[in-house]
Amino acid sequence: MEERQKLKKSLKPHWVWAIALGSSIGWGAFVQPTVWMKDGGPLGVVIGFLIGAALMMLIAVSYGFLIKSFPVSGGEFAYAFVSLGRTHAFICGWFLTLGYICIVALNASAFALMFKFIFPKLIKNLHLYQVAGWDVYGMEVIIASLVLIVFGYLNIRGTGLTGRMQFIFCVIMLAGVLAITLLIGGNPGTSLADIKPYFPSNTSTFAAIISIVAIAPWAYVGFDNVPQAAEEFNFSSKKAFSLIILAILFSGLLYSFMIIATAMARPWEALVAENNLWGAAVAVTDVLGTLGLVILVVALSMGIFTGLNGFIISSSRLLFAMSRAKILPEAFSKVHPKYKTPYVGIIFTVIVAMLAPWFGREALLWVVDMSSIGVSIAYFYTCYTAFSIFKWSMDKEYNPAKHVIAPGKKFIALIGMLASVTFIALLLIPGSPAFLGIESRIALIAWIVLGVVFYLAKRTEFNKIPKEELNYLILGNKKIEVENE
C-alpha cells in the first residue's frame, strides 16, 4: 500500500476561528444590505439571519463531533464516505467543490466592484462587451485577477502565513463594523426609530423572514472550512466545535450590525428604490462622509480578503483529499516540496476563479445562487453521518468501535438533517420565496451532468480500490473507528 500524503500541522486555534468567521463574512455583509432589506425589511433580515445562525449552530454540533473523530482534510467528503461509502463521498465532494470555487470567484469580482464604486472612471476603461445587460470592463478583469494571484501565492507559501493574516484581517473587519454602527448610532441626525417600517409592505412578515432564512447556508458558509483544515491543526481537534460556534455567533452579530447601521443612516425604502450600485456605501457616506466610506471600504476589503483566503484554503484541501482518494487526478494531492501545501489545488482554484470576471457579475450571481445547494447537500451528509454514529441506546446494532450512545446529540443531528433538507427545498420548490431563477437551475443541471460524466469515466478505477486502502487514504486508518466519548 502506497504511503499516504500528509499536510503540515501549523494552524493555531485563533487562526482557525478567523478562517471560519472570515469565510462566513465576505463581500455580502457590506454590499448586500439594501438587496436583503428589499426582500425582508430591516427586522426581517436581522431575525432571518439570527434564526439562520441558530440552525447553523445545530448543524455545527455534528461538525464538531466528526472533526474530533476524523481530523482529516476533505471534511464532508470524508464524512459522507464514513456513513454511505465512496459514491456518496464523490457526490458530496463534487457539489462542495462547486460551492467553494464559486465563492472565491465572487469575492474577487466584489473587490473589482468596490473599485468601480470608488474610482468609476478608472474601472470604466477597456470596455469589452455586455453579458445579461452587465458591462464587462478589462480593468475589472485585471483587478479581480490580480487579487486572486496574490492570495494564491500567499496560500502556496503556507497556512502559517495565511492563518496569521486571516486573524489580523478579521480583527480589523470587526473593528470597522463596530465603528460604523457606533458612529451612525451616535449621530444626532439618526435614531433606531428610523429603521421603520420593520418589514416590506408588499409581503407577509413570515415570507420576509423565510426569504432570508433560505440564504443562511450561503450567508454562513465558511464555518465548514474548519473541517477542511482539520489535518493542519497544531492543537486538539476537540476545540473545533467551540471555535465554530464562536465564529457563527460573531457572523450573526456582524450581519445584524451592518443591516441596522444602513437602515438608521437613511430611510431604507427610499434607499432600496434608488437601486444604487452600492446602497450601504451611499447610506454610510450620507451620514459620516468620507471617513465613513474609508472605514466601510477597509472593512469590506478585509471581508473580501478573509473570504478569498478561507475558500482558497478549503477548495484546495478538498481537491487534495479527493485526489488522495484517487477520485481526482494525482496532481491535486502533490504538496509543495518547501512549503508543504497542496499547491496544484491552489493554482487550479485561482485559475478557475479567474475565468469568472470575464462573464460579468450577473452571470456569476446565477452560479453562486446555486452554490447554496451544494453547501446544503454537504450539511446534510455531515448531519446524516453523525446521526448514523450516535445511538439512542445500546441496541443490537451497537458496536463500541463505531457508535456512541448519545441520544441528545442524535436528536440534534436529526434536526440538522431536517434543516438541511429545508434549505434545499426552499431553493428548489417552485413558489418558494428563495426559488432559484431559471439561469441558476440551468447552471446547476450543467454541473450535475458534468459530475455524472466525470464519475462514469472514473467509476471503474475508483471502485477497484479495496475498501481497506480507501479507508487509509481518506481517513488515515485501515479500519473506520470512532472515538468513543
Give keywords.
485 residues, mainly alpha, two-stranded antiparallel sheet, two-stranded parallel ribbon, 19 helices, 4 strands, disordered C terminus
Q: How does this model look, in words?
A:
It contains 19 helices and four strands. By secondary structure, the chain is an all-alpha fold. Strands 1-2 form a two-stranded antiparallel sheet. Strand 1 (127-131) and strand 2 (134-137) form a beta hairpin. Helix 3 (33-69) runs parallel beside helix 16 (360-389) and helix 4 packs across helix 16 (360-389). The longest helix is centred in the middle third of the chain and has 46 residues, at 279-324.
What fraction of residues sit in β-strands?
A: under 5%
**Major β-sheet annotation:** 2 strands, antiparallel
Oligomeric assembly: single chain
- Rounded average pLDDT: 87
Global structural class: mainly alpha
Radius of gyration: 22 Å
What is the H-and-E element order?
HHHHHHEEHHHHHHHHHHEEHHH
Q: CA-to-CA gap between the ends?
A: 31 Å
Task: Indicate the percent of residues in helices.
Answer: over 70%
Flag low-confidence runs: 481-485
The total beta strand count reads 4
Please list the strands of the largest sheet in the order they lie side by side: 1-2
Global morphology: globular
Number of helices: 19
